[in-house]
Request: fold
Amino acid sequence: MSAKTVNQRAWWLVLPVVVLVGFNAVIPLMTVVNYSVQETFGNNRFFFEGVKWFSEVVHSGRFHDSLKRQLIFTAIILAIEIPLGVAIALAMPRKGFWASVCLVLMSMPLLIPWNVVGAMWNIFALPDIGLLGWTLNKLGLDYNYTRQPFAAWVTLIAMDVWHWTSLVALLAYAGLSAIPDAYYQAAKIDGASGWAVLRYVQLPKLKHVLTIAVLLRFMDSFMIYTEPVVLTGGGPGNATTLLSIDLVKVALGQFDLGPAAAMSLIYFLIILLLSWLFYRVMTLGEED
Amino acid sequence: MARIRLEKLRHSYVAAPARDADWALKDLDVQWDDGGAYALLGPSGCGKTTLLNIVSGLLRPTSGRVRFGDEDVTDRAPDQRNIAQVFQFPVVYDTMSVYDNLAFPLRNRGVPEAEVDPRVREIAALLDLDAMLAQRAAGLTADGKQKISLGRGLVRSDVNVIMFDEPLTVIDPHLKWRLRSKLKELHQRIGLTMIYVTHDQTEAMTFADQVVVMHEGAVVQIGSPVELFERPRHTFVGHFIGSPGMNILPCEVRDGVARFAGMAVPTANRAAGVASGARTEIGVRPEFVRFADQGIPVRVVRVADAGRHRIVETRHSDSVIRVLLGEHQAVPAHTAHLAFDPAFTQLYADGWLAGEAR
Amino acid sequence: MHRLKWLVPALYVAFLMLPIYWLLAMSFKTTNEILGGFTLWPQNFTLENYRKIFTDKTWYMGYVNSLTYVVMNTVLSITVALPAAYAFSRYRFLGDKHLFFWLLSNRMAPAAVFALPFFQLYSAIGLFDTHIAVALAHCLFNIPLAVWILEGFMSGVPKELDELAFIDGYPFWKFFLRIFLPAIAAGVGVAAFFCFMFSWVELLLAKTLTSVEAKPIAATMTRTASTSGYELGLLAAAGALTMVPGAFVIYFVRNYIAKGFSLGRV
Reply:
């Protein structure tokens, strides 16, 4: 593709976006930073404490544990949802009645408020009254996610895959639709097999869209809160206490906003760093 | 090597075509000889891409047959027809190098690596791509990518026909002529049949030996560029080709002679035999109209400067007649008389050249 | 092997529909039945949950309110995102790469972090408890998403196309509407759906910024968890109904997302 032209006036096109997003971002961020470096003993009096909270958080064993759990969770999620979503998009009909049916049905899980998702899976997976739990136990498996950490993890992951794979699939499907017919026609004339078309036409053209899907799923799964809280409450014990759940526990449990604010910022920085890494890796080799 | 024949080709994109307008291609019978350079010329929507895709096998015609030589290839897939196609937007495999792009069609057909290499290099040299063989195809400019597309067609030794679907559309204007000359040069060197679809008459006229002019799904005229220019069979051809197009003037026919503005206008074709009630018109190109002392009286309305010549717009009552003048010829001030060169003035009845079999 | 291709989406959809069936089943049961034991379908079929929602003003207004600010936000987000995405896709300008990444960074903090500051901010400018407040607040995460998605699709359209139209004398707005937008239709469709979806399900900010006038359905639903214990049947019915507007949206944009348009003739 030919190079982009340099044009500073393009800033005018971007200005509305900057204003709307910046308005919502900058001011609250300043507030959080403010809290993170102060200590209070009540009565709205704050004392500047510098990096005390940050250092406490970083050295806390509890923080390390929930961070570890979070990393494992996100890694599993990405490993399942990205390939699965792409595979579904590739297998779905390109157009027509069944394509519409697929699209509508696939988008249903995405539209349910997250607390309802958590609540419905909570009941769904219960061993005595839920469809899934009851069926699994009837089949001979000893399954109880409220008591068994492994079962809790499996249920949590199943719920997330159920909930969010469609996002990846929809993005990939739209990306595939945007590939001009000429590419498929040329491949036919070139005698390319189905695998060659996948490898040399479809997947390269999906790269942009996949980058977005990976980043989105990474960030959202790293920050996930409502669904696991409603499903397991972080349990049994601490088994499914992911990072954000831990953060809220800290925030509610303490008197000070300091530790929670500091933890929020560290949290944000971790996501920022990892996203940036993902982004760089996935856009390697792209000319400007 | 093959002669291409299209027999009674009709195509509709609609499942149950009812009206005339539902048919993208209406009853075509065309023959292309081996090794020629042909153009399919016509405005957007006239069916030329449909026709191209039927010849290449990307589309199955609703009815009719396609023959390459003696074989009926209507049911064959594109990769079994020994054709290559270059599309409107450059199609390259972004992740592969230029070399791998060119080698792709050969490798897919199981050609041994030892034969692939010399062939790829030969074609790359032909297309001036040899310096870029190791580069990633995605990094090339549009004309470079189109050359790769072309190269993928040339690299196969079994290709008989190369089809071009408006290939210069996204090329920079000042590079267009370079690529066009390259295509012409290639044709002369390799001698493959080339079919070139375009809506740009300059491209068609400079590239092709024979031009097929299409309009609304039907072939209007097939002929060399000179024939199309000097003797258009249909007013559409006269109007579409040439810049500016042919002057088309309503006339009446009396005693076997065409009459316009009360005067007899001698025409190259005979006016006898024109059905009564037909819409009769005179067609004459601005190149063949000149100012004279006697003739059709007109008012000079406007002069447009087109560089090496000028286009003078004149009017006689409601009719507009354009005259092409050289740089140094004088333009009359207000009123003048026009004379038409009889050898290049034609009479048309209902749009078609009078006296010709359709 | 290719014949069985349809099995993949079929199995996936079946997998998706199981919990949804369960949700629907729960919506027609009483909370007692749900918690009492396992029943595959409602033994005591009841429409009480739905009746409550359709007759209780706080419930159905919740849907109306949500729909209002979500539509506002979707339209706003897509409208401002289009020119910005075009700029990112076609031009290089000072700070463009950093700006692009900064946009995405706004999705990297949990909404909880913004809840209190947003509450203070929007109250300070007098927009508390309005639809526009929530619509604006959701711009924080929806606009970056829209810009990223649209830019991705726009980059798939060759830049030569823009120049071609320019040479042919097309005014820019005509080129944009008649040629460019159809070429990226899939991107617009999916971006619009995602903006709708993320705004629709966003709980915390919507709850924080509203109280009565613009109270969204999400807030009303969390109420069921607190007042009279956990009214599961009601929650299930409300949840089932939340799928309906979104289904319309995806149905509406389906032709843009599926192979309705492609880079056609110029």
